[in-house]
């Protein structure tokens, strides 16, 4: 395997460069996926049938916590990648661990939120609006859940194998994924929650 | 429904029972044959675990041909049922199921794998690469497609086929009107193979962007590679829409949500919109690679370089953009208002412009060329007038006001078969004949090939042109019978005769493979057609590593330049080559996806969850795996090269 030392570690082999470009293209597909979900949500937002409307079920506190936690986690994973570029393995691992803990925190609040919806009678089967809401949030939450497992695997690998072109590449790609989830959340926060509460 | 009732066939007929027996007998035959000839190890090592793009391409090719016969059997049954007034061959329900599966099989499980076959076989060779960017992902794509296809194909013997049309419009596809599990099969099978298609899209885009040989700028790529690139960009943007729509359809059916219902706020038109936002680009995913193949074939057999290379590229780019702006023309008559209809009418007609540019470019390529009338060239020459007729009737349909006359009639059926058969099927058969020697080491018989061409062309014209007339006279599509008084009888009989000729034509392809395998010369060299692009510069059969030395590119027809103008294609010494290892994981994942999909279809939650966990474990294993592939030594390469006819 040819390693090009003029490049950052995560770009240093040809396969690494392929992986990163491939992942960007995958993120393009993910944008289409979430764009479709948002389209469905906006189409069905007012179609509440006999169930509740958005303003009746949304609560600002858990949503603010979720937003704060997830935005911070995007910052900490950025610090993790910065530490990786400096070759500081332990700092990087710490920041990755903090990121995943924040992600776990986000997921906990989201589960609380879903239980709240269930208690106020906004279940998956209630109306087109609730189905679209829970599918959009659930898809994002599912991505976060997958990310928690993925991130854990990467931490284990970096710990065991050190910072190699391969582990650096995986970590960098994971950070792209994590930032992407954050961007999607900003759209969810603005156009689902804030719009729904106004 | 009772537990076991769900697995029963809701509308059994002797044909279905016969197919059941046939499936069981063929399966036993395959297992017994593999055991008797001790081929299990070979099958596993060489095919099931392979990550070689050429072998994956061949597996796509074989699957596509098998599915062509499955979809063709549906077609001939439909034409037989309609061949005379008040025919009693099939009942209405059976007819519904057959036109549904015909559409799905032909588009998703025949045409898609056919184009993936050519992308896999040709693209890495045309750009001078060793393999695709992610060989293991490529194998996974194939096995997901295969799992989806098999899942879809068992529907008619376990639980019943989908019966809501290949578009599966809600509320017809909802639980109220489609009670059997048929539509669950539709949702899950297409979902699984669709994930595979998306992965291919990502893989091919990365491959084409990053792995081209030195000197090959984007505007020096061969035309088929360009068409494959554009088609894969469309795949990346179109398939996620289908993914979401299918998930929503699945939850509507399995978990009683209300996305597409007509109660509790559901909106059935949302499905129609999502389906066609994917579905219209889908037709360009199919046709653009077909155009790419025609470009290669026409310039080869006209002995001229492709006329208007850059206009060919830009017209494809334009088509890809427009393909996302026309989906609403599929429901002009479903009440969206005059302004919307007018806008989509104009965007739809606009696609005729870049397509026309391409048609003229092919004509100008042939102009003053020295045309050789080989089988691939015959298909290409037949394609131009037939496809143009299909295009012109498409513009007729694009006029939204006039569409109120054509909508849901046989006129529409005639139009899209008129584009998709000469456009895609002819291209695939032309490509099959053209590339056969490269991958199998012998030529297909030209005489039998010409008989096939004429059977298919005459059969096609007889089968579909009468539909323009019956359609304008008001014969509705999807209607399973009609009375004597309508006067549709004679023209429908003509269609049946045409369909039968086409069926004979497809059988002659199989005979041709058999005949040529027995009789054709194996001594054909690496370039039997005197072709122009890079895939013909390597040996036949293509060695595992494609090229011993990386080719140096100077133009879009570098191989032609190396033959005629003294361009040196291969420079420098042979170095050792890095290749990926085989892996059984993609195949295993295909099986797990099949089991999980089947369990979801029948709402068997325990195996479904186990299946999902299995998929997760496979992904985790991949994350932890350390697999750096292997190296082929210089000595080994030199030996292979000498055996295949000397290092070039």
What does this structure look like?
The complex is a heterodimer of chains A (198) and B (648). Helices cover 80% and strands 0% of the residues of chain A. Chain A has helices at 14-44, 54-57, 60-85, 89-119, 128-161, 165-197. In chain A, 41% of the residues are buried. Chain B has 648 residues and is mainly α. Chain B has 20 helices and two strands. Chain B has a two-stranded antiparallel ribbon. In chain B, helix 3 runs parallel beside helix 5. Classes of the chains: A mainly alpha (198), B mainly alpha (648). The A-B interface holds A 1, 17-18, 21-22, 25-26, 28-30, 32-33, 36-37, 40, 43-44, 47-51, 124-129, 131-132, 135, 149-150, 153-154, 156-157, 170 and B 133-134, 198, 201-203, 205-206, 209-211, 236-241, 243-245, 247-248, 251, 255-259, 261, 263-267, 270, 274, 277, 578, 616, 620, 623-624, 628.
Give the tags.
heterodimer; A: 198 residues; mainly alpha; 6 helices; B: 648 residues; two-stranded antiparallel sheet; globular
Summarize the structure.
The complex is a heterodimer of chains A (198) and B (648). Chain A has 198 residues and is mainly α. In chain A, 80% of the residues lie in helices and 0% in strands.
